[in-house]
Amino acid sequence: MRSAVESLANKRHHFLLLAFAGLSVFAGMAAISLTRQSGPDLWLGLAIWIACAFAGTALLNRYLPSCDPALFPMAIFLSGWGLVAIQRLAPSFAARQALWLAISVGAMLFAAVFPQLLRWLRVYRYVVLAVALLLLLATIVFGSNPSGFEFAPRLWLKLGAVYFQPSEFMKVVLVAFMASYLGEQSAAIRAERGDANMKLPLSPRLAGPMLSMWLLSLVILVWQRDLGTAMLFFVVFLLLLYTTSGDWRILIGGLLLVMIAAAAAYHLFDVVKLRVDIWLNPWPESDGRAYQIVQSLMAFGAGGILGTGVGLGSPGYIPVVHSDFVFAALAEEWGLLGVIGVLSCFAVLTLRGLSIGLTHSGRDFHKLLAVGLTMMLVVQALMIMAGVLKLLPLTGVTLPFISYGGSSLLVCFVMIGLLLRLSAEVASARHPGAR
Amino acid sequence: MSVEVAIFILRLVAGFCLIGFLAVLFAIVWRSMRQVDRQLASARMPHGYLTRQNPDSGQANGVAERFPLLAITTLGRSASNTVVVNDDYASAQHARIVLEDGQWWLEDRRSRNGTRLNDLAIDQRTILTDSDVIGIGNFSYRLTLISNLSR
Hints:
The structure holds 2 protein chains of 2 kinds. Chain A is about 75% helix and about 0% strand. By secondary structure, chain A is an all-alpha fold. Chain B has one helix spanning about 1-45; strands at about 50-55, 65-70, 70-75, 85, 95-100, 105-110, 115, 120, 125-130, 135, 140-145. The longest helix of chain B is centred in the N-terminal third of the chain and has 43 residues, at about 1-45. In chain B, a hairpin with a 2-residue loop joins β10 and β11 (about 140-145). Chains A and B meet through α1, α3 and α13 of A and α1 of B.
């Protein structure tokens, strides 16, 4: 009885969220079409987005009625906002992004509805990890960069006309692998923690994976010059290890390792040195190497509280604004309001994701998977938002759901799909008769 | 002129929709937090009580002691239990009464001298009903359920 009332309320909320999101995206698109000449693919993009939103909501209500009501609307709203931003900033990429959105929502539904996926991720973890690592190694040999610059990092693999980035897929695979490994080890880890005779500051059970993960991150950093991804993997891994063991020394030890790696990287790699130097003081080179970050700060300033309005700002001064710096463009055209909007969405994602993890308290794999996926998305978002605001050295990761980038969008939606699956399994575990 | 007005109106619409979206999102979060809060409150609310019968050997001395029946009620000699049994034959963590699937279950927690239900020793978890008598050592407790519970 109560669950029927609840699902009715969920449906009403879903509808309200979709209505608000749709109107907002429509208003953005319409404003763009009024401020400049635009082709039919603007409305095509909007149509694809609406179709994705309704298909996703309808199918989730049909096949997974007990899933979390906030996650999918949040993801689809942010991605709609991203479509508007890409249409505004780089119109030639917009059609491609809309296509990727359709693929991504399809993949999310697959991950959410297909019942065997979680088990496969756990059982075949070594196979999955090996495939992902092979793809990652392939980028070192066959890697290319869509922009075609000689010295740009070669993180992409080209498959026909499609570029994709294996390090994005590595995010899901790695979280699943760590969740399944640590889930199996967690009982032993906790037992060691309770054991007062342990004189070692860290048991090898914890230190071993921590060091090997550190080495993997360093390999990514050295071979790929991909500072952001290396940092992201290591931070998320530390958080997972902390979730498993509840040992604060993990965080301190990890911080020390990060600092050692950072100090070494600062002296060894020009990319890292440049990023840190312009983070400490961008102004002497404000029209040279620090042009991008300075223009980004200018955009934040120009936005003010309510922003300049969609299509009325000039975020085009920031180089490659549609991928890494899309947050600066939002800040200029939507102002503080937009910034708070994006931050709130990620805050809600954190809250929901962690509470899904909490409700799985007896099942370590499910708990760690929920925490890891949430942290992967949120830490990535925080890293790039702080980087664009010059709170942290800039790390070239995408802003989840909003930035241009097919692999990134796909993987973010797959993560949301897995989280939805996990949230539904909580409900079905609690009411065994309901499924 | 008209284009500018239209753009301004669109800005307003987009801004209000953003705020509306966030408001609904927060409402969902708020509702689920309230639900968790209610669940916790109902777990803490007494569903009945346990009345201590006087030890068989002793004589009637004063009022019978009453303990609240919680969704998880523990009995034993240790002071951390819901019902502290001051008896030499009681173990520190002796027995437990839990509410599961709408039923009350009595479990013995591997106590030294065992737990009795209506003067019979139990060897597995057993469903309780109103006015059952639970025996631990020299003590016994009569279970009273409050039937008109709104759950």
